[in-house]
Amino acid sequence: KQEVTQIPAALSVPEGENLVLNCSFTDSAIYNLQWFRQDPGKGLTSLLLIQSSQREQTSGRLNASLDKSSGRSTLYIAASQPGDSATYLCAANTGNQFYFGTGTSLTVIP
Amino acid sequence: GAVVSQHPSRVICKSGTSVKIECRSLDFQATTMFWYRQFPKQSLMLMATSNEGSKATYEQGVEKDKFLINHASLTLSTLTVTSAHPEDSSFYICSAFPGQGALNYGYTFGSGTRLTVV
Lengths: 110, 118
Hints:
The structure holds 2 protein chains of 2 kinds. By secondary structure, chain A is mainly beta. Chain A has strands at residues 4-7, 10-14, 19-25, 32-38, 44-51, 56-59, 62-67, 72-77, 86-93, 98-100, 104-109. Chain A is built from no helices and 11 strands. In chain A, strands 2, 4, 5, 9, 10 and 11 form a 6-stranded mixed β-sheet that branches. In chain A, strands 1-3-8-7-6 form a 5-stranded antiparallel β-sheet, with no helix packed on it. Chain B is an all-beta fold. Chain B has strands at residues 4-7, 10-13, 19-25, 32-38, 45-51, 57-58, 67-73, 76-81, 90-97, 108-109, 113-117. The interface between A and B is medium-sized, with 22 and 25 residues.
């Protein structure tokens, strides 16, 4: 069964710093991997989707990479802002089901 | 883009009563919908997979008689929490899967329902 973990569980950085969130998965047979953001008490907002054939995707200050062979994905956030404070989840799609990571709680300090 | 509407966003109910949560795909047909549950400070956990016109598939440990799922049409799935107890208080999120072609696309999630049982 696919297992997805995220490191670190929590991260606190000063505003303006660049940061990296890590996601690892045990089964490399995935169709795609998706990064989400979740604000407290809110639903998920999709940030980036990387297909299994791709190595990275970029959207604004966000860049996500995927290394299927090693079972890793990273989410890079450039020039962090207080509004980036949220929980970030990665999810591996192995077919028609998602497996979610444990999440990284990010706090950006003004 | 694909939009999923979930209703209600918040609900408070008394112990022993039932609560229905709706998940609608607004601009696409969803052959499969998923229901997730999230406890505080924990990740989302899949509860069940519902396929239009057939019975839902429940994950291990999820009581199917307590969490009734109905996917009567390609645009609507409902989750009914029956005889609710305080321990059922949680955040419930649905997700819709448009079909095989969407393997190349991301899933779409509802905005979630915060259930509080008092």
